[in-house]
């Protein structure tokens, strides 16, 4: 038996790690029973989801004790994200659920006062082990594949703070806001990363390859080492994300294509006869996604706008697109469309959690919830802001972690001449007067792809969704969609002030300077664009070069293994 094993305990996207191993040319087996763990020569624990769910599943499947035995045997172990956290005594995420108790300490929630939580995006590692003060870092010298100053993809709300007691375990740290946490653990046969190497592009694949080529126990005392304590920098090295969005729908011939709307209309302009033209076809989804990965996109979002007249679980072409994309694209993938409770043609009920699970197993890292989030918030507000526990947002966040849930907001401006005429909705001043000279507006949330307005404003929606467990806001704007006139900065600024979770700016990008303005004026974590990337009007690398020239941190592209 023996060989490389992956520990799949049933939570989150492990397909991406499997694809990364295949890309590196390694065969592996899945752990299917407790005995498989002890049979392994190398073991990877690809932790995805919440600490409590992960550790309870380990216990329920009788994996916990064999896993402890395996680690004590000295054979190579790699833990990723929750696979790192599970080695500790416990976590504030689930205080009553014990960890594996291999490393002393508790996983802590990030302080939310100075930054968005979850910590979601690309951040830099600082190598604390050195041969001496001037020599290259110990990490690179010992072939762990991690290079000082490289950024990797993180997605978590909880982390292990760096302390003197954990120095012997710490290989690298990362700063987020004013907090420093352990991002790489290494001692003897154990190598763990808080970041996701399988989602960190080619830089992350190098880390995986280094572990797979290693021999097992690595001595931490073979040379005279210096532990260089990390210093809190005036500003962390957390980068701004550039996200490529692919609106996917069925064209008139029944094929799934990437399209792009002008204020949500995806058909070509008619010739004046009043008849709409064909659905805009801007390319094949898998090919475009691969192109964006190679061009430096930090994430890729698929929004399936076909509407799923039937059950999304039977939408085999979209699931196949996810599966094929994750084979060659090693950055995070988000999928939106149909994340709700549905009844299939045979009358069987599938919960939103089931639908999300199928997407995760097909290669998605996050799911984007649109119309169903609006309906859930209406219910939440009608129930005096009491959580029901049964919404798509709550159930998916509970099972997979808040970082897996993105809320896609489709608002439109409603101008008013005074707050009294806003029907109690959250009103903001605007520098862009309405048709009658109004200098106030509120943003009405819509459903069904913008076709139907609801009596709920964006401020109500985003604050409620955060309370329900969502981890990120994808903030569109119907008035800006397809205009290439820049993002709606007033809307974005207002939402950023309202929530403590990351916000993605969307709708309106047409030039490089639009990205600079949205990052500088709103401090948003990410900016998304579609048409200008599809048509190569503004290449992704041009955006990044423009931002770097203006001292805005972005990820450099590592183009090869």
Low-confidence stretches: 135-143, 261-272
The residue fraction in helices comes out at 25-40%
Number of helices: 17
**Radius of gyration over C-alpha positions, nearest whole angstrom:** 24 Å
* Record field, number of beta strands: 30
Distance between the termini: 30 Å
Inertia-based shape: globular
Largest sheet, spatial ordering of strands: 2-1-3-4-14-13-12-8
**What amount of the residues lies in strands?**
15-25%
Class from secondary-structure proportions: alpha/beta
* Main pleated sheet: 8 strands, mixed
**Chain-averaged pLDDT:** 88
Fold and architecture overview:
InterPro entries: Aldolase_TIM, Class_I_gatase-like, GATASE, His_biosynth, HisF, IGPS_HisA/HisF, IGPS_HisHF, Imidazole-glycPsynth_HisH. Residues 6-202 form the Glutamine amidotransferase domain. This protein has 561 residues and is of the alpha/beta class. It is built from 17 helices and 30 strands.
Describe the structure in brief:
The chain is of the alpha/beta class and 561 residues long.
Keywords:
alpha/beta; EC 3.5.1.2; 561 residues; 8-stranded parallel beta barrel; 8-stranded mixed β-sheet; hydrolase; globular; GATASE; 17 helices; 30 strands
Describe the secondary structure blueprint for this structure.
Layout: E1 4-6, H1 15-23, E2 29-30, H2 34-39, E3 42-47, H3 51-60, H4 64-72, E4 77-81, H5 82-85, E5 88-91, E6 103-109, E7 119-124, E8 126-127, E9 129-130, H6 138-141, E10 151-156, E11 158-159, E12 170-176, E13 179-187, E14 190-193, H7 201-213, E15 226-227, E16 241-250, E17 256-259, H8 285-295, E18 299-304, H9 316-325, E19 333-336, E20 342-343, E21 349-350, H10 352-362, E22 366-369, H11 371-382, H12 392-400, E23 405-409, E24 411-416, E25 428-429, E26 440-447, E27 452-457, H13 458-468, E28 472-475, H14 489-498, E29 503-505, H15 512-522, E30 526-529, H16 531-534, H17 540-549
Parallel strand pairs: 1-2, 1-3, 3-4, 4-14, 5-6, 16-18, 16-30, 18-19, 19-22, 22-23, 23-28, 28-29, 29-30
Antiparallel strand pairs: 6-11, 7-10, 8-12, 9-15, 12-13, 13-14, 16-17, 20-21, 24-26, 25-26, 26-27
Helix pairs in contact: 8-9, 11-13, 14-15, 15-17
């Amino acid at each position: 038996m023996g060989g490389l094993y992956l520990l799949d305990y049933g939570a989150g996207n492990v397909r991406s790690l499997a694809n990364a191993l295949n890309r590196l040319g390694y065969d592996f087996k899945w752990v299917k029973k407790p005995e498989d763990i002890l049979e392994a020569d190398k073991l990877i624990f690809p932790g995805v989801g919440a600490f409590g769910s992960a550790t309870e599943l380990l216990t329920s499947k009788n994996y916990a004790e064999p896993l402890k035995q395996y680690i004590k045997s000295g054979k190579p172990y790699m833990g990723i994200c929750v696979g790192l956290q599970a080695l500790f005594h416990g976590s504030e995420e689930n205080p009553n659920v014990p960890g594996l108790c291999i490393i002393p300490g508790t996983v802590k929630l990030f302080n939310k006062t100075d930054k968005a939580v979850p910590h979601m995006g690309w951040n830099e590692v600082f190598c604390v082990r050195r041969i001496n003060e001037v020599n290259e870092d110990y990490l690179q010298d010992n072939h762990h594949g991690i290079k000082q100053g490289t950024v990797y993809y993180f997605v978590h709300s909880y982390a292990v703070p760096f302390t003197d007691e954990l120095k012997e375990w710490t290989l690298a740290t990362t700063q987020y806001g004013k907090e420093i946490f352990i991002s790489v653990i290494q001692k003897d046969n154990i190598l763990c990363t808080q970041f996701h190497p399988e989602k960190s592009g080619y830089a992350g694949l190098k880390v995986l390859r280094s572990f797979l080529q290693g021999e097992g126990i690595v001595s931490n005392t073979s040379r005279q080492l210096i532990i260089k304590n990390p210093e809190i920098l005036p500003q962390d090295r957390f980068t701004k994300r550039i996200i490529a969005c692919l609106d996917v729908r069925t064209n008139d011939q029944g094929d799934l294509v990437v399209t792009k709307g002008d204020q949500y209309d995806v058909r070509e302009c008619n010739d004046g006869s009043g008849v709409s033209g064909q659905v805009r076809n801007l390319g094949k989804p898998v090919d475009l996604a691969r192109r964006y990965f190679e061009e430096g996109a930090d994430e890729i979002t698929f929004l399936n706008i076909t509407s799923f007249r039937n059950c999304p679980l039977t939408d085999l072409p979209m699931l196949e697109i996810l599966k094929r994309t994750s084979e060659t694209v090693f950055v995070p993938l988000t999928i939106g469309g149909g994340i709700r409770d549905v009844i299939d043609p045979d009358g069987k009920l599938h919960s939103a959690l089931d639908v999300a699970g199928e997407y995760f197993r097909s290669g998605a890292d996050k799911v984007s919830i649109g119309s169903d989030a609006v309906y859930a918030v209406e219910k939440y507000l009608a129930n005096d802001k009491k959580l029901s526990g049964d919404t798509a947002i709550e159930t998916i966040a509970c099972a997979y972690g808040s970082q897996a849930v993105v809320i896609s907001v489709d608002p439109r401006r409603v101008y008013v001449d005074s707050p009294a005429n806003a029907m109690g909705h959250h009103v903001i001043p605007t520098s862009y007067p309405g048709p009658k000279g109004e200098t106030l507006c509120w943003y009405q949330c819509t459903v069904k792809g913008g076709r139907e307005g609801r009596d709920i404003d964006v401020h109500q929606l985003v604050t409620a969704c955060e309370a329900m467990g969502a981890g990120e806001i994808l903030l569109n704007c119907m008035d800006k969609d397809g205009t290439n006139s820049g993002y709606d900065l007033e809307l974005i600024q207002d939402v950023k002030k309202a929530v403590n979770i990351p916000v993605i700016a969307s709708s309106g990008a047409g030039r490089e300077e639009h990205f600079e303005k949205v990052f500088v004026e709103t401090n948003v974590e990410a900016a998304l664009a579609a048409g200008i990337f599809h048509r190569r009007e503004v290449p992704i690398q041009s955006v990044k070069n423009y931002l770097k020239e203006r001292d805005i941190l972005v990820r450099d592209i590592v183009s090869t293994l």
